[in-house]
Specification:
Elements: H1 9-21, H2 25-38, H3 46-60
Helix pairs in contact: 1-2, 2-3
Length: 78
């Protein structure tokens, strides 16, 4: 899926989760950092990733500062 669309938030989440399961926090961090960068504000994966990515970065030996949360776009006039 990522070969077809490297911004697919579901694929990025699952790829990162899979890498964590096999003891590769370095690879997991790369997927999840990309998810934080490209996922839409309403992505169902963002809350979990945002809650866990700084610890994941530390496990990967990386310094990482979580950017501010994105703001969801309004649905239109209401």
């Amino acid at each position: 899926a990522l070969a077809l669309d490297n911004t697919d938030d579901t694929a990025l989440f699952l790829a990162g989760f899979g890498e964590m399961q096999v003891g590769r926090p370095d690879r997991a961090f790369r997927y999840w950092r990309r998810l934080v960068e490209v996922a839409p504000a309403d992505s169902p994966w963002l809350p979990e990733v945002r809650a866990r990515i700084e610890a994941l970065a530390a496990a990967a030996g990386a310094r990482y500062v979580l950017p501010p949360a994105p703001v969801a776009a309004a649905d239109g006039p209401g």
